[in-house]
Specification:
single chain; mainly alpha; 0% strand; 68% helix
């Protein structure tokens, strides 16, 4: 039961982290089953893709929840983290909704039938402003959660983050190689 509660609370932290990267389509807690808009990315950095919301599902590879689970928190630390997450739950939800709405508005402006540079610039600026608000909130939550950790846990968290970044880079490189291979296969005429 405690694990499920922590998972829910860390899920909010994951939403904040995802929001600040700008990849904020499918992580909505209340709209997780909604089909994505046709113009949303599906590959790396897109919903369900590496580097995108969920990173293979909530609490999956690379998520803040998975990292916290690997730090062997004490019961007292779990309670403190839960308190931090509870204190920011409404803010996290609200900023997530604002970012999703601003991102949708920008995508709609970019994909409009009639090009209007001013509208695209306005929507992009609005999205940037909301993403800045989300980044500040994420930093605040991160700082409060990080303060709960021991120096050893903080060092381990930094190590896990570095490992995650290396894995993400390796995945991106493999994905680029696969794209190049497909392009080469398409460009090469079939043998007769």
């Amino acid at each position: 039961m405690m694990r499920r509660s922590l998972a829910g609370m860390f899920g909010a932290a994951a939403v904040a982290a995802v929001v600040t990267t700008g990849f904020v389509h499918a992580q909505a807690q209340d709209g997780a089953g909604a089909p994505p808009a046709p113009h949303e990315r599906r590959g790396p950095g897109g919903p369900g893709g590496p580097g995108g919301p969920g990173r293979f599902g909530r609490g999956g590879f690379g998520s803040p929840m998975a990292m916290l689970r690997q730090l062997d928190l004490t019961d007292d630390q779990r309670a403190q983290v839960r308190q931090v997450m509870d204190s920011h739950r409404d803010e996290l939800r609200a900023v997530g909704e604002r970012v999703r709405a601003a991102h949708r508005a920008q995508n709609d402006a970019v994909n409009a039938a009639q090009f209007d540079e001013q509208v695209v610039r306005t929507r992009a600026a609005e999205l940037a402003t909301v993403q800045a608000d989300a980044a500040v909130l994420q930093a605040k939550v991160h700082s409060e959660v990080f303060a709960v950790l021991t120096p050893e846990q903080q060092a381990k968290a930094a190590e896990l983050k570095a490992q995650r970044e290396v894995q993400a880079q390796q995945f991106r490189e493999r994905a680029r190689e696969r794209v190049k291979e497909r392009q080469q296969r398409r460009a090469t005429p079939p043998a007769q």
